[in-house]
From TrEMBL:
Residues 148-343 form the HD-GYP domain. It comes from Erythrobacter fulvus. Gene3D superfamilies: Hypothetical protein af1432. This is DUF3391 domain-containing protein. CDD domains: HDc.
Amino acid sequence: MLKHIELSDLELGMFVQKMEGSWFDHPFWKSNFLIEDQKRLQLLKESNLRGVVIDTTKGKDVSAPVAEARASADKPRSIVSKRINAINTRTKREDAASMPVSIDKELHAAQAVANKAKERLHRTFMDARLGKALNVKAIEPIVNDILASVRRNPQAFSSLMRCKLKNETMFRHALSVSALMVSLARKMKLPPNEVHNCGLAGLLLDVGVNYLPQNLDPPNGDYRNADPKIWQQHVLLGYRSLLNDDGLSQPVLEAVLQHHERIDGSGFPNGLEGAKITTFARMAAICDTFDFLLSHTNTTVALDPAAAIEQMKTMEGAFDEEIFHHFIESVGLYPVGSFVRLHSGKLAMVVDEDHKDHMRPVVQAFYSFATGEQIAPHRIELARSGEEDRILGIADISGLGLPEGGYLREMIFLSTYKNAA
């Protein structure tokens, strides 16, 4: 039997069939579940839902005294029934919108999410630069949009951020790290509310940059090119700017403060080491570093995504090894955008992952090392192509007469998904 109840009447052992409110009003992915622990019960009671519908055939019913007290205030059965039907309809629509799809089908939605997110981030960061208080609630919907995109396809949003040049560095980095954090959190099987908070932490990691002196004019407009003593201040500035937001969880705040700390104690601002660094911060250190290695600075050259993974492997003492292993599983040993050399003598770029075999992704071949000429681009699913097309390693594209790596990556990516991106 379905029964509408107030949040205050929820108890352990009840089965939540539907939740009354939007997806943004609660931290749960599933719309129906048994309340088995005190933490989940508390999250429900503290949410912004208008109420819930419980199924008394699958869990505990409202106790008699509470039922009697609520009886006079209950709305007519017809209204409750309409509300239940509306919830059923909305849930089906939301479930359909989150069904897994291929990367080419998700890219259009991912681009729309990125465009919308950029506008919100721009307004929020501009307010910060003008000395106004940060409105975190204004950008929280971005996390939900990214989360939904990652649920539909784990690679599309991150790949788009990685392979398109027309993304301003600061906004691209925030969105990319947010998506990487969400994917990593899902790979680590963290609870839904923590997955959401990981995405929010990714968006806010470098918010402190907005409080650095605006007259510095760093090379290429990138504050990572500024004096390290000035650049390193962004973690404390970001942390302090967020302290007054009562809606932010402590793990998110600590991720902002600690994402440049390193396991061996060589990081900043406090030289923390090992278990003293929070889990979110250890995750953020990996996601932030990976995306940083993919971009140009005045002292470093942008790395191929697979080369970035290889370099991070050599950074002994920097990262939590177990979390780094999960990260590689989430992006692949050869992430989308990586240039690889095939056993067949072809040069190709990774354009999609293979969900069953992370070592043998989907690639787009476009050049022959044997002839030294470009060939007709064609897609190869390495997991089903046999030994001839296995990956020998990361390809060096210098000296081949090809466009610069970033432009070549964008050309291949957009031509591969020309109808979607």
